[in-house]
Every structure is written in structure tokens, then in C-alpha cells.
Amino acid sequence: MDLLLDIALLALLLTTAISIAWIKDLFAAAMLAGIYGLLSAGFFMTMGAVDVAFTEAAVGAGISPLLILLTLALCGRRQRADRNRARLAIFLVIPVGALLVTATADMPAFGAADAPAQVHVAPHYIQQSMSEIGIPNIVTSVLASYRGFDTLGEVVVIFTAGLGVLSLLMASATNPLQTNPQISVRGQSRDIVLRVVAKVLIAPIMLYALYVQFHGEYGPGGGFQAGVIFAVGFILYGLVFGLEAVRKVASHDLVQLLSAVGVLVYGCIGLLSLAEGKNFLDYSALAGDPVSGQHIGIIIIELGVGMTVASVMIMVFYLFSAQLQRGQREEISEDDGTSSEPEATSIAVTESLQRGAS
Q1: Closest CA to 149 of 273, 330, 11, 275
Q2: Which of the chain's termini has less CB crowding within 10 Å, N or C?
Q3: How many of the other CB atoms lie within 10 Å of CB of 241?
Q4: CA 43 distance to own-chain centroid
Q5: CB under 8 Å to 270, separation ≥6 — which residues?
Q6: How many Cα atoms occupy the beta-carbon half-sphere of 207 within 13 Å?
Q7: Nearest to 302 by CA among 124, 67, 44, 51
Q8: pLDDT tens, position by position, 284-327
Q9: pTM over 0.90
């Protein structure tokens, strides 16, 4: 039964991937990308990687398609026909795919007891994790403590990616973060059902994010997953009630500050360990009892991870939304002069969105 499920998921993944590459409608491709992320999460679940599945479901099927849709609002829905570029992509993908398939022949079978990872570090993690770290979730022990320095690198990569997006989008305009309140108000959803449902869902989303944040020691979750869920709550609020409304709760400057503070919190824990005469990110230096120190250190660094991940996701959403509003303002300014009235402004914005979608 498990083999049939794996074959079905793999077939659906392959079909979805080919459809994304083949289809010319970028909106449909964005929806298929979300489906691909959800299927990938299911595939990770069948392999027992629950934490990875959790992250893939939140990012691959949640945040990523939303950012792709914001990009489509800026560049249009239809892909331009460029046969030369398509041929170049195929020319690059086929050799790389062949090399990857060839490399799998040297890999041990999935779950093999004699695999290098199973005989090198896994026995120590499984047998000693509870006595050294003191938490039931071995995945959190590995990511937050045993491989804490590697996880710090991942957080820095996320922060650097946010800075890259910030630099690129801010370089494309003189005032990339300036928004038009009139457009923001008109951009709010007028669907009363959507507004009520959003108000009902946002509080449980935030509460669930807190649960995931502080429950990572005992089950699937942690700072990465919780940060994405926090970001989803803010992004949902911004989509339904407008960009200016969500910025009143978390301004762009505050989000930028928190994205850096999360990395600093993580790094300062390592410096504190050094100051106490221990190794970098050795949390046992944070308390008299080594196990208690591990608990304290993991909670603090996971909080830093959650702050950085959530802040970077929200910052990217702010930047793309501001770029979209800037494009709307430019189209309105080129109108025939009737855009000074609020009703005409709303019509102009609607027409610009329709032209972008077509």
C-alpha cells in the first residue's frame, strides 16, 4: 500500500512539473506550483519527514504562490513566446537531470541500515539526545543544538535573501515604499463574507503560530514553520483590508528591524556561550544544569528564527505590494484627467488590474 501511494504521489509530482513547464498561462502555472508544493509535502510525510512536510506545506503551497501572483500582477499573465530561450532551458535541464539520476545510483537505499548517516551520527542522536538535550523531538535537537551553527547559516541566508529583494526593488524606483492611501482604501475587499471570514481566521492563525513556535520541542514545528504561519496571518490581513491597514499594525521599518534582530538574537546566544567558556552555541553554558541550559538556548534561538522568517516574508510582501501600487499610480496619472474623482480612481485601478491579468 505504501509503495502504491509513493508511486501515485511521484506520478502526480511529475505530471504537475511537466504541466508547469508546458503551460503558457502563468496564472495557471502559479496555481500548479502551489499544488506541487502540497504534493511534495505529502511525499515528505510518507518518508517520515514531518517537519520538512510542515515547512513545504506552509512555504511551497502557501507563501510562494502568493508572491508569484503578486509578480504576475506586475508583469502580466501570459508568457511571451521565445523558442530560443525554451531550447536553451531544455539544453540545460536534460544534462543536469541525467547527472542527478546517475548520482542516485551511488546513494544507499532509502532507510537502509548500513547507510553512512545511519552508522555515523544517527545512533548517537537517537540514543543520547534525551540525556544530552532533554527534549522528545530529535529533529529539533539536531537542528537547534547538534547542528545549531548550520541552522544559524540558514537563518542568515533567509535574512540575506530578504536584503537582496529589498535592494532590487528599492533600486527600481525613487520611492518604492510610498503608497497611495486612496488606492489602498479602494484596494480593500468589498466582499463582506471574505472580510468576516478573515477576521475569524486571523486570530486562530496567530494562536496556532504561537503553538508551533513553542511546541517544536515536543512535536513537528519550530521557528521556521511558526515564522511562515505568522507571516500568513499578516499577509491575509493585508490582502483583505489593504496594505495601509496592516502597516498600522507592523510598519515596514519595524519589519526590517525585526528581521535583523532575529539573526542577532541567534548569534548573541553563541557569543554568550563563548563568554561562559563553552563552545559557540553550546547552550549548556546558559544555566547551571546543562539540560536546562539546552532548553533555554533552544527556546531563544527558535524565537530568533521565527522573528527573522516572519519579518522577511512580510517585508517581501510589502515590497511587492508597494511596487504593484506604484504601477497603479503610474497608470492612473496617465489617464485622461478623470482620475481625480474617487469613483474614477477605482475604475482606473480596476482597469489596470484587468490589463495586467490579460
Answers
A1: 273
A2: N
A3: 21
A4: 19
A5: 148, 149, 152, 280, 281
A6: 5
A7: 51
A8: 888 888 888 999 999 999 999 999 999 999 998 888 888 777 66
A9: no
